[in-house]
Design brief:
alpha+beta, 12 strands, globular, about 15% strand, 2 domains, D-Maltodextrin-Binding Protein, domain 2
């Protein structure tokens, strides 16, 4: 799946003198080599987030590489999430592959299973024994490491405190879901003259949210059984309970007039005061207060909090994030790996943490748990859920198995029937490399 970003940039290229190489595997052999006289080229693909949000980190690492490998050219380009997978798939059919590529953490399995990524040595990277498990797992296949966690993300509640204050007498987010539902009912009453107002904006196709409720009830999307295969488990009682709960919330509180949409525009809905609460990535608050997609005047009213979930507990979050991998076709794997090593070092991770981006390890994550801007997401990360690390999960997503299931429920199919159909379709896909 593709993760959403704040804006779409064109793919751009940046040339700098940096990492150099000789052919060889991605071991840290370059450490004992004459790096000053190495020549060649290393190509790095980063997502646009880096160029827009932490260019100083990119420059810091490039300078560090340039000092170590002064005669080698680094070709670094920025890519957007909508096009990157297609670009990478095309490149992998040729010999013009990037040496280093950033992958969303739901993208890695496909490339690991298909042998597109070089195996890496875990103990040569900073904080490897303390990486956030939800990220580390996305880099591991058959007990081998094929990428390095870069940064993490988690979904949170983003709410309009002024609307809550006006409707309930308190601008604070309720601590339990029962209290939240009472507040949402009051918000509905207070804003009954606001046509299309949704106290809670939950789009019907928002399967990340639906699966968070599945997790909250102890269910799962799929399991790996003792026969050595994956099978769908959405039809099981606990998973059905979570899906029913999600569907009930959508039907009761989403008054937008169209339930069969994804969460793509939810920040605009909140930013234009057509909803008081959304379950979203933390960065989506920026869209809600941007001049075009939202309302800048809401800057002081919108707040980020942990989302209350069923049974008096926080709603479990999907763990998002990015990883960095060295491609198996790289002719410069050892030095490309050195670039990844520098870009994910403790020093580099601190640059991200200082910008309120969740780092790849628990040690540097800890201070962010008590920082107002990051506490909700940082506290959600350690217990976050992730999609099945199965060979065919990419195909499950590509064929919209979960979205189709949710659509059918909102068109009138029972949860029992819809989940059984989803599992049957999933079972045909999930064990086959996509």
């Amino acid at each position: 799946m593709k993760r959403q970003v704040l804006a779409t940039l064109g793919t751009a290229a940046l040339l700098a003198t940096a990492v150099g190489c000789s052919s060889g595997g991605p071991s840290p052999a370059a450490a004992s080599a004459d790096t000053k006289n190495m020549t060649g080229t290393v190509t790095v693909w980063l997502m646009e987030d880096a160029g827009k949000s932490w260019p100083e980190l990119v420059q810091q690492v490039n300078d560090q590489f340039a000092a170590k490998y002064p005669k080698v050219e680094l070709k670094l380009s920025y890519h957007n999430w909508d096009n990157k997978v297609a670009e990478l798939d095309q490149a992998l059919t040729t010999n013009q592959v990037p040496d280093v590529v950033e992958l969303g953490n739901t993208e890695t399995m496909k490339y690991m299973v298909n042998g597109n990524l070089a195996e890496l040595k875990r103990n040569t990277f900073d904080n490897a024994d303390n990486w956030i498990k939800g990220l580390s797992d996305t880099c591991t296949y058959n007990q081998k490491l094929f990428c390095v966690p870069y940064y993490a993300g988690a979904r949170v509640g983003i709410y309009n405190s002024k609307m809550f204050q006006d409707a309930t007498g308190s601008g604070e987010m309720p601590r339990t879901e029962d209290e939240l539902l009472t507040a949402l009912d009051k918000l509905a009453t207070r804003n009954k003259g606001n046509a299309g107002f949704s106290p809670l904006y939950l789009p019907g196709e928002y399967w990340y949210a639906a699966m968070s409720y599945v997790t909250a009830y102890g269910g799962s999307i799929a399991k790996f059984d003792d026969t050595g295969t994956w099978h769908g488990t959405l039809h099981e009682a606990k998973a059905q309970q979570g899906i029913q709960h999600f569907a009930d919330l959508v039907k009761k509180y989403n008054k937008s007039g169209n339930l069969l949409v994804k969460e793509t525009d939810q920040a605009t809905v909140v930013g234009r005061e057509k909803s008081a609460l959304m379950y979203a990535n933390g960065w989506e608050l920026g869209n809600a207060i941007a001049p075009i997609t939202g309302t800048p005047a809401l800057k002081d009213s919108l707040r980020i909090v942990g989302m209350p979930g069923p049974n008096g507990k926080p709603l479990p979050s999907f763990i998002g994030g990015s990883d960095l991998a060295v491609t198996a076709k790289s002719q410069n794997a050892a030095v490309a790996t050195d670039w990844v090593r520098m870009f994910t070092s403790t020093k580099a991770q601190q640059v991200l943490a200082d910008k309120d981006i969740l780092p790849n390890n628990l040690t540097q994550l800890e201070p962010l748990k008590n920082k107002p801007a990051t506490s909700a997401a940082a506290n959600a990360v350690p217990d976050a859920w992730f999609t099945p690390v199965a060979p065919g999960w990419g195909a499950v997503e590509k064929q919209n198995v979960l979205v189709t299931m949710l659509d059918s429920i909102f068109k009138g199919t029972s949860v029992d029937e819809a989940t059984k159909a989803a599992d049957a379709q999933m079972n045909q896909l999930i064990n086959n490399p996509s």
